[in-house]
Amino acid sequence: MQSGMRWSTLLWGEIWVIDVAYNNLSGKLPNSIGVPGSLFMLKVNNNNLDGEIRLSLQNCTSLRHIDLGNNRFTGTIPSWIGSNVPLVSILRLRSNFFTGYIPQQLCNLGYLHILDLAHNNFSGTIPKCLNHLSALTHGNSSAYDLYSYYDQQTSVVKVTELEYQRQTLMLVKSIDLSSNSLEGEIPEEICSLLLLHSLNLSENQLSGNIPSNIGSLQLLEVLDLSRNRLSGWIPQSLSSSTFLSHLNFSYNNLTGAVIRDKTGIFARGTGKARLACSPIEAEAHAALNGLEVASDLGSIHLECESDSKELVQSIKGNIQSGGWTIYPILAAIKEKCRWFDSCSWKWIPRRANKAADAAALVAKRRMCDEVWLNRPPSSLVFVLQIDGLPCPPQD
Predict the structure, then answer these.
(1) Where in the numbering of this chain does the RNase H type-1 domain appear (predicted)?
(2) Are residues 91 and 170 in the same domain?
(3) Does the pTM exceed 0.85?
């Protein structure tokens, strides 16, 4: 269908569902679309519609499903979503040209279980009040029963479009805020969304640490935080995530170890706060921690990959030629490699190769005693020299 949207107001009183998705409609939503307000499903996704979300829709107090995805809509998310219209369970605005902040009023949507704002121009921070979304904390799906027989929805998970129909859609719990300009830290409150299955915050400008308690999201299957400015260690709490099958932390400033099985599926992620006085030392600590976790998992064949060329060369070569500060860690790595039937090391070049360096420098500034390194005890230097081991620089 190719047409502008010219709809008569005569039928509005009889319309509960509008589904004109996947056509070639253009123009703006009609001004009268919210009169007299009987609408509870609006699906106009995958068209060429533009303009702002019509104010008249605030009259549709029974509106449960809003899908404006893949159009050319502009403007901000109106504050009446969550105030005048409190029953929305699916809000899908992805792939438009929306701007502004994510309004706090969305946190009032107690039935919301799919929030998709990806691929827009939203800015500001992620609202801390997301833990008020009760459908994602302890469940609240009764408002969905009225139209579950009709509805179907396309959701993007792991860069794959999946179509959910009827009762299946009630079980989907996802938040996708990817490809915007969001900044600030990931709020700790997001760890309260215990029923969440998919969380995608990739391609933003988020900074700070990953919430340490993010592993409490036990039902999480997809976690994508890639292409941000996150720093620090990969939270060790992720090691208890039994359903997590897609994990992406790439292109950040993170340090830690991620363990995958032979099919590439996430098995465990780990990171520990360590005293790190150089980038290579931070990398070595992460590698050692990864070997310990792999052993705990009962692994017998390991293929270890690191984006630190210096670390891989040090492990594969003569560890005594490495820096004196990392010699004990390299020796421990060599020893723990003997726990496995096979243990190989490979350098993986990536544009994110400086990630561990940045994290290690953060650790250096916050946690390390510079005086001890610059002026190490003479007794330690003497012992190292007698044993023929790498020594710290001397004045």
Answers:
(1) 256-360
(2) yes
(3) no
